[in-house]
Design brief:
This protein is an all-alpha fold and 95 residues long. Helix content is 55%, strand content 0%.
Length: 95
């Protein structure tokens, strides 16, 4: 288990107001450290940028570059609705 990732998840959920009651104490404890405070500030900065109207200016060709990079990414596997159900993948044609 990646402890640092789990701590960031607790802080993110807390910042979004989506922390289960059992995890609030963990999030608050994580915020006592420098890394937790930096993570808190980063998540709020990200939120501020996403909510900005208009958003920050994008460089020329940003949309085309992003579309090209996304086109190179593999398609995500479809996940089942239940965590206990098997993951459904789409078979690909073999050459």
């Amino acid at each position: 288990m990646d402890t640092h990732k789990k701590i960031r998840e607790h802080i993110s959920a807390f910042a979004d107001g989506a922390s289960p009651a059992a995890d609030v104490e963990l999030a608050l404890a994580a915020l006592q450290g420098d890394d937790g405070r930096r993570t808190w500030a980063l998540y709020h900065t990200i939120g501020d940028v996403l909510r900005a109207d208009p958003g920050p200016p994008l460089s020329n060709g940003f949309a085309a570059t992003m579309a090209a990079r996304l086109a190179q990414e593999p398609a995500p596997a479809k996940r089942a609705a239940s965590p206990d159900a098997p993951v459904v993948t789409v078979p690909t044609a073999s050459a």
